[in-house]
Design brief:
Chain lengths: 564, 449
Amino acid sequence: MPAHDVLIIGAGLAGQRAALAAAREGASVAIMSKVHPVRSHSVAAAGGINAAISLDDDWHSHAYDTVKGSDFLGDQDAIEVMCSEAPGEVMHLEHMGVTFHRNDRGEMDLRAFGGASMKRTAYVADITGQALLHVLYEQLMKHHETVERYEEWFTTSLLRDEQGRCCGVIARDVRSGRMEAFQAKNVILACGGAGQVYKPTTNGLIVTGDGIAMAYRAGAPLMDMEMVQYHPTCLVETGILITEGARGEGAHLLNSEGERFMEKMAPNKMELASRDVVSRAEQIEINEGRGVGPGGTGIYLDVTVVPRKRTLEALREIVNLGKDFAGVDITREPITIRPGQHYIMGGVKTDIDGQTPIEGLYAAGEVACVSVHGGNRLGANSLLDTLIFGRRSGEHAAARAASMAMPQLDTLSQLRRDSDAIDAIIDRPRDGRRVSEIKNELGEMMNAKAAVFRDEQGLQSALETIARLREESESAWIDDRGTVFNQDVLGAIELGYMIDCAETTVVGAIERKESRGAQFRTDFPERNDEQWLKHIDITLGDDGPRVSYSPVTITQWQPEERKY
Amino acid sequence: MAETHKPPEQFSFRVRRYDPESGDAPYWDEHTVELEPHRSVLEAILQAKDRFDGSIGIRCSCRQAICGSCGVRVNGEPALACHTHLDAAQKSAKDGVIEIEPMGNMPVIKDLIVDMDAVHWKKVQRVTPWLIAKQPVPEREYIVPHENMVDVTQTMACIQCGACVSDCLAMEVDPGFIGPAALAKAYRFVGDPRDDQQFERLNDLAQDPEGIFDCTHCFKCVDACPKDVNPMGQIMRLRRIATNDHHIVDQNNGERHEASFVTLIKDFGLLHEAEILPRSYGGNSWFGKFAPAAGKELLSSLPVVFKGIIRGKFNPKIAIFGHKIPKEDLKAVQAIYDKVESRPERFELNLYIAGEDEPDAVAAGEGATSAPGPEGATSPSEATVDQGAGASAPAGETPSESTPHADPAGSDKPAAAGGEAHEPRPDDPTGEGPGEGDDSSDGTEGSEQ
């Protein structure tokens, strides 16, 4: 049975960064992912990474912007850690080989991004996530002798010993269908968010909340699950993302009357207000009949005001996206966009070293909630989050591993349970619904009822629907009866993960009777610091989700009214 | 070209299925789906998976041509399924039924899923795919020209989808060939001014019999690449930097073989087949004809030569004495050489920024609200020249700073093309007219605020 000091689940930016950090500390490391590492969804991050590297910038300013962006729900100790360590991390990446674009003095160039008080976003054209991910993978190839890679292995559950410590996982080799138990002193979850709970979403098909659900089922608390970010600029039909970098470079948002409507909501920052604010403003325009396109469901994003050469060089990817996925040359005409599900601020509750309340279990990246993003994440802070807390988790886990023996436990029974569960799915009679039908219904329902605007009635009916879908999913059938690359059966397991994520999201949204960050309750339209300046934690009880609260850590910035 | 919202139509496609557990041979599996014509082939496959048969195997995730998972062959050509429109695919299908197969040059695991580890990733590992940073590492970032970073971003933009590997003809003949994707990856370090091992990397790749000189210049990878990485162009740049800047003479005779073509065309205007071998081995001198290695290869080539003659592939007389072209034509050919060789340094087109040579004025005119002035001062194509001239030192002197230089002979596809037919470009530095390109730049629908 494979055994490692540190076993990392997920090989996006957080996972790869954790692996490299843990290996550097001398731990025996393995990284496991259900897809090849460069397919991880970090690849799609476009705009850049925030760090106060400019000589006239200060990490305190970055931290304040982040606190304000979070609508004061972010934990300020964690935000301080992230922002103060950001410049060093970005330099480290530069030395590793990331091809950050330069200014005319040959230094790293910085672009403007939403919610930031100055230009502090380092970037590689508009493929920053791809560049970072591929450079980290270059390092994994370099360190192939010290970091073992299990590529295309699907994790089915976390193992805990009698003392409750997390000490490994059960996983299935996608390619052969073989099930295996992996022992580990520490497990770091780095397997991303849960965007597929929504339809449409900017997230890839692999983003199904696996880590969140596995941790939840193992008893770890989830935090701030109601905070779901809608990105202001997604293509109307497919939900494909147009980077915030476009507005960072100066693009305008226009309604059907040709107005830059952000003047009303954010007279100072205009299009570069934080995402929750911009998405809400767009949704109001659409709801009040000033939308564009068929059915008036869109808003114009006008990139033609950006100098053409600059667009072609710095926004090349979205020039291509516009052409290929909407038939629009964005350098010549506006493109129709609308808000779309993009990111979840919530996740598995961790401290600033990535530790969850379960000993030996860490989480980093979108799967985790440290919380640095609070009610709303700033653009270009997610890449930073993955790298900082990926590294910190890796280092901490390696140090912990050095002082302990490999936990012993009987893995066979869990291995058999997971194995039997998969066989049972494959053998289900074809009299229920298809997995794909349930997944579609879930996504469309969530996008209707747990989106930019929410209310009690809609959320309650969402909860009822989720309960029904959960029941249906237990008898949902699949076509593939094979073992080699049986993606069908993995889809059924993922559906279970997604239903857990959807349920906790809705429970959190019902619980939070105020409007803060990405959560806007039309029945409670005001922020209410007196009652709700706190995190909502959800753990799995015998009868389903159980809600509790934890305080928000405030160090230097008292809550104030949020204006852009 | 404005956004079109056409109603859904029916599209039929057949997928090459293979189930390794069944013991059966691969077979075709046909489905019909209903989608808008500009939706992707991937969406068609996913609809069929959702509605009819969930066992169809295909890797996919992002649906926006960035994760690189869904490389397949559509109607025989390598492509990303998510990046191929249904209407276009239907048009290029033989019988109206879109044909979807797994990529080539890699073993099939199941249906459309191929074993990229066995081929692609092994080759990437071969090129030492990580930065070997110059020492000492600075406290802050390395200070490097912006142009170099934009330049290597073209290869950084490779999503490792394998489309170029799938149809590499050289790899088909020589599976050991390092291949287009991995060599493009190599350029990402060779072209990076922060890398310390430019010579070592190039020497390694030039001396390898399956390295940069194994490419046969067929353009397949250039066509296949969904991200305009232009792998073959990168291989040619590796060759130019290896030979022109570092004067690497490889044991495979690649450098001399290439030089023989260049001098032959200069001397005769057309290829002179009988002279290729002697010149490749013995160089341009007359005595070179007696290079023993040339004789050896000539002997070993005789069966092919005879077969060629018997089948009428070529005329022995012309092959031996050379093709003749009129004197004026030869002069015109030689004038090209003179023009190119008289340039003080090589000029490497930056192909990453496609469409840059289109006049900005049009966009500014259409851009409704405020047409910003400053960039109007520099015409974009002038800017390109500046890039090449400004950034690179004279060839060979300071190899580590070698990037954007260019080859005005245009050995690379004019990917930067895309001029306006109605807008002449008096300032065109290469003297070429505007190429084919985006033909619809006048769609102003929706910008009439």
